[in-house]
Specification:
This protein has about 230 residues and is of the alpha/beta class. It has one domain: FMN-linked oxidoreductases (TIM Barrel, Alpha-Beta Barrel), CATH 3.20.20. Helix content is about 35%, strand content about 20%. The chain contains 9 helices and 8 strands. Strands 1-2-3-4-5-6-7-8 form an 8-stranded parallel β-barrel, surrounded by 5 helices. Bound molecules: geranylgeranyl diphosphate, SN-glycerol-1-phosphate (1GP) and magnesium ion. Magnesium ion binds next to loops. InterPro entries: GGGP/HepGP_synthase_I (IPR039074), GGGP/HepGP_synthase_sf (IPR038597), GGGP_HepGP_synthase (IPR008205), GGGP_synthase_archaea (IPR026438). Belongs to the GGGP/HepGP synthase family. Group I subfamily.
Length: about 230
């Protein structure tokens, strides 16, 4: 499977695994066979080449599409994965997280396989999350303000993915709904606090793709399966 042949636009459910956290072999197998459409290897803090490679080796033999979502250029590892989803954070005053890190990456690596790179326009809405703190995102936004970011992402920057990110907490469905009504071509991702079938279904009504992360570690794989079933 190569990145360019993956139908990532059809994914309804993605599982985000954190290289900084541990899952035993049985849990990894249960995640990989849960029906989730893809596994994203991602975290803001403490992701190293070593723990990323360890996690990738644990998940790679199940035939589930694998994506790395790097938090910095050092984390942009293509080896053994299908695609890289590379974030830009739109609601930060610090341009490093919009294009600065990306410019440093392109400077250091002149031969990036861009056909394997899918840009993501993040709107970060939980100020207490690691990604909120690191990027100093301005999170106090009304639904129409988030929707305006989504329109800029789609119509001005042509990002293929708009990602409403509440990492660690369950978000406001009215915000996700407003974002979904604002865009037509880009895929809308929602992630944050999905830990039940009900929450998966609620956000799945508006988002094209829901992302489940912490619940895998905190609630277990049966809960993950319930979230898959709710959107597929
Ligand atoms: C240019 C390259 C290759 C990378 C830069 C990419 C950028 C701009 C990243 C900034 C946003 C970011 C840190 C994204 C990482 C993905 C993400 C949101 C992971 C979830 O993070 P949390 O759940 O908040 O953090 P922990 O799991 O580490 O607590
Ligand atoms: O860990 P949770 O809260 O499920 O959030 C998922 C994902 O959006 C984090 O980047
Ligand atoms: Mg996390």
């Amino acid at each position: 499977m190569t990145g360019t042949h993956l139908k990532w636009k059809n994914w309804a459910h993605v599982t985000k695994l954190d290289p900084d956290k541990y899952l035993d072999a049985a849990a990894v197998e249960a995640v990989a066979t849960s029906g989730t459409d893809a596994i994203l290897l991602s975290g803001t803090l403490n992701v190293t080449r070593e723990n990323l490679a360890d996690l990738r080796e644990q998940v790679e033999d199940y035939g589930v599409p694998l994506v790395v979502e790097p938090a910095d250029p050092e984390g942009a590892v293509f080896e053994g994965v299908d695609l890289l989803f590379v974030p830009s954070v739109l609601n930060t005053p610090d341009a490093r997280w919009v294009v600065g890190k990306h410019q440093q990456w392109a400077l250091a690596c002149p031969d990036i396989p861009w056909e394997q790179v899918v840009p993501e326009a993040y709107v970060v809405l939980n100020p207490a999350s690691a990604v909120g703190r690191v990027t100093r995102a301005v999170c106090d936004l009304k639904p129409e303000e988030v929707a305006a970011y989504a329109r800029c992402a789609e119509h001005y920057f042509h990002f293929p993915i708009v990602y409403i990110e509440y990492s660690g907490t369950y978000g406001d469905p009215a915000v996700v709904r407003a974002a979904s009504e604002a865009i037509t071509g880009a895929s809308l991702y929602y992630g944050g606090g999905i830990d039940s079938a009900e929450r998966a279904a609620e956000m799945g009504r508006y988002a094209d793709t829901i992302v489940v992360g912490n619940a895998v570690y905190e609630k277990g794989v049966e809960t993950l399966k319930a979230t898959v079933k709710a959107v597929q």
